[in-house]
Structure formats: structure tokens, C-alpha cells
Design goal:
By secondary structure, the protein is mainly alpha-helical. It has 2 domains: 83 residues, no CATH class; 68 residues, no CATH class. The chain contains 5 helices and 2 strands. Helix 1 crosses helix 3.
Length: 164
């Protein structure tokens, strides 16, 4: 191999460390990218039903797809989450409330101890689960409007999605 020639192996293009020499990484944008990746979502959704470790197949130009073990993907997500937390903390301004609303009951009292990180995480997860259930319920309650002039069989066809 010639000195100075590019390596045939991929090189990491960014780091997430705290070192001053580390390039700036928009960890929050990368988190959004990973959270919306269909292969990662599929691997995560299949985990409860799988008896084997999952991998995430990623397409690489000029090469066969590469399988990344799900635990390596989760480690990447964990590292990005920490970096994203630092980014978001740095962006917090004086207009941010001292106590976020999700920690407070309707009467203004604390739902959990705000000094306890595990309790804050558990509460945030609780609210996110509640929201997911509300969204699931709302999506199950939407029906196509049926025009009064349709007979019973035509109304059924419209409701079933055969309205062409």
C-alpha cells in the first residue's frame, strides 16, 4: 500500500467524545435519523418475539449489505442520546421553565422527586406510553364519512375503503 493512499476500510467520520478536538456533531439530528430508520424499527419491534440476536442490515455502495448487531446499534443510540442531551442542555435558555410541566400535577405539586433521575425517566416513559395509547385509540376511532344518499351496501363499501 502506498503511503498516504486512502484505506480501503471505512474510517469513522465523526466522534461523540468530549475532547476539544472532536468535530461538532449534530447528535440530535442523527438520533432522529436512527429513530426513523425502518431497519432499526423492524429489528426493535421483532426483538420480543425473537430467540436469536437481531442485526440491522445496512446497504453499502459497491458492497453487499452489512449487518450491524442490534446491541451495537443500541450502543450507538446510547452514545448519541448522551451527546444530544449535552447539545440540548447547551441550547436551553433563560426562557425555559425551572420545572418542566411533565413533573407537575394539576395542583402544582410534584408527581415525582425532581432530583431523582430514575423517577424523572419513569415519569417521562409513562407520559410517552399514555400518549401512544391515546394516538392508538384516536386512530382506531376514525371512520370515513358516509353520505346519507348511499344505500346500505354502498355505504359499507365506502366505509371499507372501496370508494373508487
Amino acid at each position: 500500500m502506498m503511503v498516504g493512499a486512502p484505506s480501503s476500510q471505512p474510517q469513522p467520520s465523526m466522534t461523540l467524545g468530549d475532547a476539544p478536538s472532536a468535530p461538532a456533531v449534530n447528535a440530535t439530528a442523527l438520533m432522529a435519523l436512527l429513530m426513523n430508520n425502518p431497519q432499526i424499527l423492524q429489528a426493535l419491534q421483532s426483538m420480543p418475539f425473537s430467540t436469536e440476536p437481531q442485526g440491522v442490515a445496512v446497504n453499502v455502495p459497491n458492497r453487499a449489505p452489512v449487518s450491524i448487531p442490534l446491541n451495537a446499534v443500541m450502543n450507538t443510540i446510547a452514545q448519541l442520546a448522551q451527546a444530544s442531551t449535552r447539545e440540548l442542555s447547551a441550547l436551553s435558555g433563560e426562557d425555559e421553565p425551572d420545572v418542566p410541566d411533565y413533573l407537575l400535577a394539576d395542583d402544582g405539586s410534584f408527581i415525582v422527586d425532581p432530583a431523582n433521575p430514575q423517577e424523572r425517566v419513569a415519569l417521562a416513559l409513562h407520559w410517552l406510553r399514555v400518549d401512544a395509547e391515546v394516538q392508538r385509540y384516536r386512530s382506531s376511532q376514525t371512520f370515513a364519512p358516509v353520505e346519507a344518499s348511499l344505500d346500505e351496501s354502498d355505504a359499507w363499501a365506502v366505509e371499507a375503503g372501496f370508494d373508487d
